[in-house]
Amino acid sequence: MTSSKVPALAARIERFPIAGSFTISRGAKTEAVTVVAEISRNGLTGRGECVPYPRYGETPEATLAAIQAMQAAVAGGLSREALQAAMRPGAARNALDCALIDLEAKATGRRAWNLLDRPVPGERTTAYTISLGSPEAMAAATAKAAHRPLLKVKLGGDGDPERIAAVRKAAPESELIVDGNEAWTEANLEQNLAACGAAGVTLVEQPLPAGKDDALARIKRPLAVCADESVHDRSSLAPLRERYDAVNIKLDKTGGLTEALAMADAAQALGFEIMIGCMVATSLSMAPAMLVTPQARFVDLDGPLLLSRDREHGLRYDDSLIYPPASSLWG
Q1: Would you give the end-to-end CA distance of the chain in angstroms?
Q2: What is the pLDDT of residue 36?
Q3: Which of its termini does the chain have fewer beta carbons within 10 Å around, N or C?
Q4: Which pLDDT tens digit goes with each residue over 41-89?
Q5: Where are the alpha helices (DSSP H) in 111-236?
Q6: What would the pLDDT profile of 79-104 be if each residue is shown by its tens digit?
């Protein structure tokens, strides 16, 4: 028999329906597909959830296989430090990293932030996403969310000045950030930035495609621009200093909370503002990201708000206020 002192790894794909649909410049989806890793030892189980990132060729099946391939390493006592070298950054490593942190927190009787010597996260205002659509459809969706203090507006290239104007009219009091999801071009960059400036937008996220964003260094940016697809982990930060004012840290890109926290420290040292972001997922994905919120100017952890149902013991949301996780969920 296998000793209970030997860590055991299990993983599975889970699906959660989205309320309506979630649409960005690269397409629409009606469900969140997540992969959960569980590491058990001595009657305790640590959990981590990830969302495979199609933009980088990740699929749920390949991510599940990558996690399962680490069974022998986990049984041999894989540490978080060893994990960073054993797997490349990405969704699979994120699930394992967060599961290891959760398990260690349970085994030591400490909360994850104490375990990692980070500030205790407090409640924060999260952005709420307005999906891409026609100006009329986006205005209608915005009107229903106009009571929220921070809205994140998905844009898509052609027609974006009309979209952002319609959203601003529908939510005159909300702070607005927009996400181009790489859909703008050098030809419409300045026009679209001007339209965002006229609408009082605070931040524009990833307007140009990663690797084709040199124009951001050549123009006078009328408002802050944030890197998302152009930034992944600490190694990608330094080359972006002339093009971006902020970086979006997502655990599925960094490959877990361990690298995300190190990246946040490095980004602050380089003078970047920080957004902590997410994929559409359950509270189990959002919970570790809460440890980055003390360093973040923008918090975008609304994934569970976009679902028809969250998992058990999910995070507490009061409209747009998000609270740290209970230990029954994670950490």
Answers
A1: 29
A2: 98
A3: N
A4: 999 999 999 999 998 999 999 999 999 999 999 999 999 999 999 999 9
A5: 112-115, 135-145, 160-170, 189-198, 215-218
A6: 999 999 999 999 999 999 999 999 99
> DSSP letter at 213?
-
Instruction: Answer yes or no: do 109 and 138 share one domain.
Output: no
Specify whether 84 is located in the same domain as 157: no
**154 catalytic, yes or no?**
yes
**What is the token pair recorded at 176?**
């607005």
Same domain, yes or no: 150 and 242: yes
Write phi, then psi, for 69 (nearest 5 degrees).
Answer: -70, -10
With b for 16 or more beta-carbon neighbours within 10 A and e for fewer, the 180-217 pattern comes to bbbbbeeebbeebbebbeebebebbbbbbeeeebebbe
pLDDT tier for residue 1 given thresholds of 50, 70 and 90: very low
The candidate with the shortest Cα–Cα distance to 309, out of 19, 14, 13, 12, is 19
The number of distinct structural domains making up the chain is: 2
- Candidate list 154, 169, 212, 220, residue with the active-site label: 154
Which pTM was predicted?
Answer: 0.94
Per-residue confidence (pLDDT) for residue 26, from 0 to 100: 62
- 115 Cβ contact list (under 8 Å, min separation 6): 101, 104, 105, 108
Domain containing residue 66: 8-114
pLDDT at 20: 75
Residue 127 gets which letter from DSSP?
A: P
Among the listed residues 106, 152, 250, 253, the single catalytic one is 250
201 Cβ partners below 8 Å, 6+ apart? 164, 176, 177, 178, 223
Tokens 């009328």 identify what position?
Answer: 222
Contacts of 60 (CB under 8 A, 6+ apart): 13, 33, 34, 35, 52
Residue 212: active-site member: no
CATH (domain of 94) = 3.30.390.10
